[in-house]
Amino acid sequence: MEGAPLKKRPIITTASDTEISENESESCISSPEHPLKVVVSSEDEHMSQYDDMTLTELELCRKKLLKEIRFLGKEFKSIKQQIYEEKMNQLEIEASELQTGVSANYMAELKKLEAELFIRNEVAEMLHDEQIKAINRHYEAEKQSALQTLENNKRLAYEECRQDLLETIRKLQEDNRDAEIVWGEEEKWGAKKKKPVVRAKKAVTVSGPYIVYMLKPEEIKEDWTIIKKSCQDL
């Protein structure tokens, strides 16, 4: 089967077998131990290389290729495991830094949260101060209103008591004048007649409220003096 047709495939050669021209489209995978280069070039240019190769040479080339593929698979797994371990170590370091509070990301987020907390505290303090000021203004307004109401009530009570006292004084003065008139008439008639004539006192009609004094004139005057002094003290 030496003359059997071959399938078209990329040419795989080592670095020592051939040189790669600058115009060829190539993709190379190499390692320090096995400087293998996989060259993908146009099929028409290199098909002549397979025409001169026997099946034995092709089998050797295939085995060599499989060996290189297995080596590359091992290298890939090794690199993958290395990347995995490095990534796990990095994550463990970040977790340790996070637990100790020295992680850069953690510190950045912490500073951001602290800045937000500071702003919120300032806003809360300003709101609290404004609420306190509003409460104080309301308190002062209520206080002034209560004081004005108290003063008005005191003034009204004073005027009411004063009017009551003046009315009482006026009535007492009238009663005093009436009593003096009655007493003067009794003395006058008593001087002309030998025997005193007992006469009933004229009833004085007054409208309430009123105070009835059954006292002597000097005692009434004394009470009147005390009342006037009390009015002056108010």
TrEMBL record:
Q: Which residues form a coiled coil?
A: 62-101
Q: Where is this region: Disordered?
A: 1-29
UniProt feature, compositional bias: Basic residues: 1-10
UniProt keyword annotation of Transcription present = yes
A GO CC annotation recorded here is: nucleoplasm
This protein is called Uncharacterized protein
The record's listing under InterPro entries reads: Sds3
What does the UniProt entry say about where the protein is found?
Nucleus
Keyword annotations of the record: Coiled coil, Nucleus, Repressor, Transcription, Transcription regulation
Offer one example of a GO biological process linked to this entry: regulation of gene expression
Identify one Pfam family in the record: Sds3
